[in-house]
Design goal:
It is a single chain. By secondary structure, this protein is an all-alpha fold. The chain has 8 helices and no strands. α3 packs antiparallel against α7, α4 runs antiparallel to α5 and α5 packs antiparallel against α7. The termini are far apart.
């Protein structure tokens, strides 16, 4: 083959390749079918957060609006001890629900981290809230942990820290699996966490009657108590379902 022929062939092939375009494949999107029931559950979950915000704002309004007539230490105790449970701990529990709109697209592994961080913050706030109240009572030689409010609160505080320790085991099941079954560790962690949450809420509930000293009307007080009970139960529904499932799994 001559040099001119080879060059012509090369130029022809280059021209052909340059004019040939590869048609890109159209992007395909996965369509997710969402049922009407699922949409309703998302709407209800959004409503849950609105109710939680309303309850928190009403309670904090009472605390700060009347802070001038109460001791600053007592107001600090009320604010820290309340926010630890409502809303922080409540949110840390409900975030595992598949209907939870705030964590809808967050992987479960990341949810575990968020759950742990919120619980740690709650534990710190409860600790400070209890500590300032103990310090204040010690100054006037008043006895500690004699009321239902105080006993429930202290019991909740202890269970929170035990639950946190078990949470470390649950997060590292590969390391601790030779010592305890992962499902058992999860069950106990869930059980103690719910018990701590319930006792903390009970500690707050028995003191709601004191809102009358903040000039709260009877109708508003009934509304606050009703909303408090509703959100308390609502927050723990998913965790209770998970607890029952874990209990049954223990015997499989």
């Amino acid at each position: 083959m001559s040099i001119e022929s080879a060059s012509a062939t090369t130029i022809s092939s280059m021209t052909t390749s340059s004019t040939t375009h590869v048609t890109p494949k159209p992007k395909t999107t996965t369509r997710i079918n969402v049922t009407t029931l699922q949409r309703l559950r998302w709407i209800l979950n959004t409503f849950y957060y609105q109710l939680m915000a309303t309850l928190t704002l009403v309670m904090f309004w009472c605390f700060f609006d009347n802070s001038a007539t109460t001791q600053p230490i007592f107001t600090t105790h009320l604010v820290l001890s309340t926010i630890a449970y409502i809303p922080l701990m409540a949110v840390s529990i409900i975030l595992f629900s598949e209907d939870n709109v705030t964590t809808l697209y967050i992987p479960r592994t990341n949810r575990n981290w968020i759950h742990g961080v919120l619980l740690i913050i709650s534990a710190v706030l409860v600790t400070i809230g209890i500590a300032v109240e103990i310090s204040e009572k010690s100054k006037v030689n008043r006895r500690h942990f004699t009321s239902k409010h105080a006993i429930y609160g202290l019991s909740s505080w202890v269970l929170i820290f035990v639950s946190l320790l078990l949470g470390v085991i649950v997060a590292n099941t590969r390391t601790f699996s030779m010592f305890v079954r992962p499902i058992l560790a999860k069950f106990i962690h869930n059980l103690l966490g719910l018990a701590a949450f319930a006792l903390g809420l009970a500690s707050i509930y028995v003191e709601l009657g004191f809102f009358k000293m903040y000039h709260m009307s009877d109708h508003l007080l009934v509304g606050v108590k009703t909303l408090f009970i509703l959100l308390s139960v609502w927050s723990g529904l998913t965790a209770l379902y998970s607890l029952a499932h874990q209990f049954l799994s223990l015997f499989r």
